[in-house]
Structure formats: C-alpha cells, structure tokens
Amino acid sequence: MRIAFAGTPEFARQALDALIAAGHEVACVLTQPDRPSGRGMKLMPSPVKQAALDAGIPVLQPRSLRLDGKYPDDASAVRTALQGLAPDVMVVAAYGLILPQWVLDLPRHGCLNIHASLLPRWRGAAPIQRAIEAGDAASGVTIMQMDAGLDTGAMLHRVERPLAADETGASLHDGLAVDGARAIVDVLARLAAGEGPAPVPQPAAGVCYADKLLKSESALDFSRPAAELARRVRAFDPFPGTTMRLPGLDQPVKVWGAQALPADAGMPAPGTIMAMDPDGIDVATADGVLRVTLLQRPGGRRQPVAEFMRAYRG
C-alpha cells in the first residue's frame, strides 16, 4: 500500500521500520521539527526523521497542520504534497500534532493510529505510564480509525500485554512498540487483501484519560500509600523520574527503585525515615512503608542503596 507516515519518537520509529520491511511504499514521513538536545542544545532530528532519511523517504516537518492556524503556509505545503502523493492510508504513531479534518479525509482508507493502550481505557497523552501507575493488570495496543475526537475512533485491532510485577515505563514502552509495529503490518495486510478488519465502535463504559506527564509530579508524596508510590517510581522511569529529599543534601535525589512493605505497629508520621541501611531506605507512608533501593544524585548515576550510602553523610 502507498502510505504516508506521521510519527516522532522511538515508539513510532519501530512502526516505520516494520512498514518498510513489509514492503509497503512509504511515500512520505511527517514528523515534528528538529528540537535542541544535549548540553550543546544542538538541533537534533527525531528518531522517525532519522529512520526516514536513512531509507531515502521524503520528510515533512510542519509546525502545524491547521490551515487557519498560526502557520498556514506549513499546513498548505503539506496538503499540496499529500494531494500529489495520493496515499492509500496515513499511519499515525505518537506524532504530536492534532490532525485536522482535511488530513483525516485525504487518504483513501483514512488515518490509522497506533495507540498504546487497550481503548477506551487510557485515551490521551501518557497511556503507558498511567497504566502502570494505576496498577492495571494489563496494557496493550489498539489500532484505531482516527476521527476528530481525542482517541475516540473505531477500533480495528487490539493486542493485549500483561504487566509484569517489575514493569517500568521503559520496559512497557519497548514491548508495546514491538506489538504496535506488528499489529499495524497485520491490519494493513488485511486491508490490502480486502478482508477488513471491520471497525468496532469504542464502548462508552470504561473511558479514562491519561494526562500528560509533568515534572511537578516527580516529588514522592509520602501522604500517599506505599504501593501507589512504588508503582509511580516504576511508571515514571525514565521520564520524568521520581524524587525525594534526604537529610544533609541540598537537592532532591532521584528514586529509580522502590518496593512497598506492610506497615509496622505504631507507624510514625508519613515521610519519616524509619531506617537507612544497605538493604534500603525505609520511609513511612500513609499506608505501609516505602523501601527505596535505587538512587541517583544530581549529575551522578543510578546507584544501589548500599553503594549510595558509602558516600552519603546525612
């Protein structure tokens, strides 16, 4: 099939690579403009742009796709290019720009989105992390026919993935990226063969939204239950991470590993450090004890508590 692809991060690059390997004609790639990165703040291409350039695929980087928006010239140039390419379908994965109706209507088979959740649960910006944070038993990927709403389109295919007890945002991202790449190749093969799949409307029950991750959420709030905090530590790895303060240190330290333990009799106030030894730093919470096991000083590297404690003087 003749495909226009829209995506930006590593999650989307996996899908683009799979489409190219499957023999589809990827006529063009839409991705976010280059962003400054690293200590030198040098402009860097997105993973999707780099993959497209490596494969010799034309790249479009509009700042907006709204013809009546702040950058109408960008949008108009993309519309002219897409009309000339006449794609059969647009595949979208973590692109980062809202697709206006003219984009949704342009391809013959419309626009298909690779969404990293089992819709209708976790519509929105951060479905991977919010699923772990909420303690979901499973996550997955949904291939969805896009419409004007926020992840509200009819479902074409779903792949479920159980969540491991030690699942992190990074590990789930990597697993779902592979699942999504396989799923979109399967769906397009069936579409090309005229075998469906038939769109299934999302049920009204079970809808929830995965709010964007904010750095302001990083600080661990020990007035919350230990189990919830341990899930957040895993969910926010690698971004935005979680932090806590330790006596004697001017800056918060990153927390990359923690486990929830049962409450002891006569628990102190939430936030009280109950023990500090090579096994972990035990902190009282609203329900149970959070044992912190992996830490990182500002500018340093991740360290097990035993190693961290050798240099720490509280």
Protein architecture, described:
There is one protein chain. The protein is of the alpha/beta class and 314 residues long. The protein has two domains: 2-210, Rossmann fold, CATH 3.40.50.170; 215-311, Methionyl-tRNA Fmet Formyltransferase, Chain A, domain 2 (Roll). It has helices at 10-21, 47-55, 72-85, 101-105, 127-133, 169-192, 226-235, 305-311; strands at residues 2-7, 25-30, 35-37, 42-44, 59-60, 89-93, 111-115, 123-124, 138-145, 155-162, 209-210, 242-244, 253-261, 273-277, 280-284, 289-296, 302-304. A seven-stranded mixed sheet has the order 5-2-1-6-7-9-10, with helices on both faces. Strands 12, 13, 14, 15, 16 and 17 form a six-stranded antiparallel sheet that branches. It has a two-stranded antiparallel ribbon with strand order 3-4. This is Methionyl-tRNA formyltransferase. Residues 1-188 form the Formyl transferase N-terminal domain. Pfam families: Formyl_trans_C (PF02911), Formyl_trans_N (PF00551).
